[in-house]
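Input/output pair, single chain:
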Amino acid sequence: MSSRPVPTTTLPSHRDVRSETADIPLPADPLYRVSLVIPVYRGARTLPTLMAEIEPLTVERRTPEGLRFVICEVLLVHDCGPDESDRTIEAQAETFAFVRPVWLSRNYGQHAATLAGMASAVGDWVATIDEDGQQDPVDIATLLDHGVRGRLQLVYARPVNPPPHGAMRNAFSRTAKAITSRVLANDQIGRFNSFRLVDGEIARTLAAYCGNGVYLDVGLFWITGRIGHAPIRLRNEMDRPSGYSYFRLLGHFWNLVLTTGTRPLRLITLLGMSSMALAVAIGLYAMYGHFTGRIPVQGWASLLIVVAFFSGSILMALGVIAEYLAVTMGIVMGKPLYVVSTRPTRPAHRP
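Output:
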């Protein structure tokens, strides 16, 4: 009796699949789609002008180095400011088809609003700019050239001129960035900017898992390895009051320090060791003077200085540790970074 051979089906190996897909030509001149995220707090006066500047970029055009790109959407994230930004956003959404409003349930801050926009973005790249007109949307093309040419994941704008703020605020900003770079041993930390271009997948991934209290740029540094900076020129702000007081800027700086890592805790340890060494040195000096020079040790002044010094060191250490515990507690308890609603949240005094 003869048996007929059983037909078999052979699946292609990984090598076969790779060789087949390698034959598919990649586009020689791809079109890069950019989602633009704008957190809006006090944008009632500035948004119409800014949207008029962005509109030409929503039609396909070329970067200075010849790349094809288009702004496929503009996400206006309403962060529940004190003006009528909500109505302005509604008007812009009715005027321009590329505008997508994102309504937050309350004010969460600029970084949370930016992450809310990133979570809804669909572009190959995600750009973020401020609402005050200080950054020119046309410069997105320059950031894209740097990102594509350098195969970067994150591109920051590097202003070539001083920010259009007061001399005192600019000095404080430079000092804070210098302290952050040196204390946290990360030079990149001190060169971030709110005008940035992020790989779309990275932006959406960060928005999906970033917890409450995490500084946006710190989160980006966690998951990006190729970071670059593109030179741009800042403009003067439009007619709007600044939403940042010195107190709020100080809060941003402190949040940056807390979420960057545990290096400040190590500095506290070094401070404690230095304090102990200083106490031993003071004690040895007092004993040396007493036994060699017959110098009476009065006690009260030196005791008061030592107690005040060590008490301040202990309180400062406990304060920093408590801040870390507060950030950790907010994350563990599941405090949301932001909540998106289906309609704008209006102030209580307005219908």
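The first helix runs from residue 14 to 22. The two ends are 91 Å apart (CA to CA).
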